[in-house]
Specification:
591 residues, alpha/beta, 10-stranded mixed beta sheet, 5-stranded antiparallel beta sheet, 22 helices, 21 strands, 12% strand
Length: 591
């Protein structure tokens, strides 16, 4: 069955960012799927070949020069040169030649270990675990609606952008010239931070540092030196002073949901217009006006009407949603829905995806819940609602199957249902509004829906990315190991390597998004978004349909990610010939 196949595939999945490192390490120990077996050379590879996504400008490196060892080591040679440590030049060879020889040896090793057609290592349909969790222990499944049960077409982003832009012009009296701006698909990514007082959209890593090259005012990047000057001579952003737990300001806002993509693009477009036309503006009021315009699109029901009018156009993969829910019910799991959307909208969407009797699948349906306040505020009571949207004002003493409830709070929900702890697994797309409080305060298990994961994994599986990342890791290890050579010629070589490393990093970033890169990585560090994803979710996946690939009793085991002080077969140590703690012998004089 599908679950068994994916168990094999998912069991060997490596986390993004370490793919090249672990691939080459594995290949070096003769376990790479690209080097095992016979015939087509793919025996033992449980996943299909990666697509050939090599750019026109990406070609194999030139053949390396003859190996340094070939120059100095001869059969039967027992001299010191033949047994010189790999971390130091042999006698009679200048350091510049030695450094370049090591460089070419490493490049050859990398490309030998990553032959053309290297198999796809990551499965876009897999579920990835941050924390060990057994589905066999889960009795109750909860779901958000938007971007969890219902996946939407990107066409919706253009509608939100255009409508909010027109609200700015027609109601807030912004310049008519803004109508020339259209939504730019792929301009922004989820998880970015926006400095309200500087009109600066930027990507921040897990350590609160701006990734240089990813800070934008309007539609243009801000030079690195200007970004550093803006923050008092540092890339570090004091988020604890400038933003709250939920990333809502007052000074810095983090955009965490998929609906925020058109908002970020509109902020950048309006700022671009003002800057291009030399128009003075109040940055705080600009942010507030655009937030209000975007809010109107949602609160006044415009977006709901577009979707209801053409569900085939805007709702994706409805059949998969039905398959997931039906399968869980057939295995005697209890289901509930907690959404901020109104019932009439949810009802029409669920009938489209699941059928007119969709409520029979759910033990509880809660609409207009006002998350994240639903999880923290005890004051709002549940109100029963009929199918026409009318409220009943009698006190709720129990939550009944098949009934619709509005608002309420999690504390009453727990008291009335007794659904507590790790037997509950709740899925949502918003790390703060859906998952954070459930994980930290209430001990529920949580699953994050990250639609971007599918695209990012397909990029990671391309040969261009695999070669770039693996060579970058190897070059980084070489730089670290060889920095002890500080004569003039050696320093020039190291500077060339550092420049090449930066070029490779930029190339890899641009494969995901030319402006901001991957939502998961800032070059080598995890993004702030990734940090929150790991902290607030037990598992994460591209869509809930990924559940169909696993048995309902499947246990997810997170891969042991090596800490920096641990000593696995590191890529840089492998390629620089150091199978021990890096260069301690050579660095001992520092102590």
């Amino acid at each position: 069955m599908a679950a068994a196949g994916l168990k094999a595939a998912g069991g060997s999945v490596w986390k993004s960012g370490g793919v090249g490192l672990q691939l080459v390490a594995a290949a070096a120990s003769t376990h790479s799927c690209a080097s095992k077996g016979s015939g087509d050379g793919r025996a033992g590879c449980s996943q299909p070949r990666a697509h050939q996504h090599q750019s026109a400008g990406h070609s194999p490196p030139p053949p390396p020069p003859p190996s340094l060892n070939g120059k100095v080591k001869r059969a039967g040679d027992s001299s010191h040169a033949a047994t010189a440590p790999l971390g130091s030049p042999v006698e009679g060879v200048d350091t510049k030649s030695y450094l370049w020889a090591r460089y070419h040896e490493m490049k050859k090793l990398v490309y030998d270990l990553l032959p053309p057609g290297v198999c796809s290592l990551l499965n876009p349909a897999a579920i990835y675990a941050n924390n060990e969790i057994s589905l066999g222990d889960v009795e109750i499944y909860g779901f958000d609606y938007d971007y969890t049960l219902a996946q939407y077409s990107n066409l919706l982003h253009s509608m939100i952008f255009n409508t909010a832009r027109d609200i700015l012009i027609e109601q807030f009296k912004y310049p008519e010239g803004l109508r020339k701006y259209e939504y730019i698909p792929g301009f922004a990514i989820r998880g970015l931070h926006y400095d309200v007082h500087k009109s600066l959209l930027m990507k921040i890593d897990a350590f609160h540092y701006v990734q240089l090259g990813t800070a934008y005012q309007g539609l243009k990047p801000v030079p690195d030196e200007e970004v550093i000057e803006m923050y008092g001579g540092t890339q570090h952003i004091p988020l604890y002073q400038m933003s709250d737990f939920y990333g809502k300001g007052p000074s810095i806002k983090q955009f965490m949901d998929i609906f925020s993509l058109p908002e970020m693009t509109l902020l950048s477009s309006v700022t671009d217009y003002f800057m291009t036309h030399n128009i003075e503006y109040d940055q705080v009021h600009l942010y507030k006006d655009i937030s209000d315009a975007i809010k109107d699109v949602h609160v006044k029901g415009m977006m709901y009407k577009w979707i209801e009018k053409d569900m085939e156009k805007y709702i994706l993969h409805g059949d998969e949603t039905y398959a997931v829910l039906n399968r869980l019910v057939n295995h005697n799991k209890k289901l509930f829905l907690i959404t901020n959307s109104p019932f009439s909208f949810v009802d029409k969407g669920m009938k489209h995806m699941v059928g007119k009797n969709w409520r029979d699948l759910f033990d509880m349906v809660i609409v207009q819940a006002d998350k994240p306040n639903f999880f923290t505020d005890r004051r709002k009571p549940f109100r029963k609602m009929d199918e026409k949207g009318s409220l009943h004002w009698d006190k709720i003493s129990k939550l009944e199957k098949g009934k619709i409830y509005k608002q309420g709070n999690l504390f009453d929900f727990l008291r009335l249902t007794g659904w507590r702890g790790s037997k509950v697994l709740y899925f949502g797309d918003h790390l703060y509004s859906d998952l954070a409080d459930l994980m930290l305060r209430h001990g529920w298990r949580t699953g994050a829906i990250v639609p971007e994961l599918e695209t990012e994994i397909r990029i990671i599986n391309t040969e261009q990315y695999m070669h770039s990342l693996t060579w970058q890791q190897a070059l980084t290890g070489l730089l670290e190991r060889m920095q002890m050579y500080q004569d003039a010629e050696s320093r020039q070589v190291l500077l060339e390597w550092m420049k090449e490393r930066q070029e490779i990093r930029s190339l890899s970033k641009n494969l995901f998004n030319p402006q901001f890169g991957s939502i998961f990585r800032t070059f080598h560090n995890p993004t702030y978004f990734s940090r929150r994803l790991i902290r607030f979710s037990d598992i994460y996946m591209a869509s809930i349909s990924c559940l169909l690939n696993y048995d309902v009793n499947f246990t997810f085991y997170p891969r042991r990610t090596p800490l920096q002080h641990e000593a696995p077969l590191w890529m840089d140590q492998l390629c620089t010939g150091c199978m021990k703690t890096p260069f301690l012998e050579e660095m001992v004089h520092i102590r």
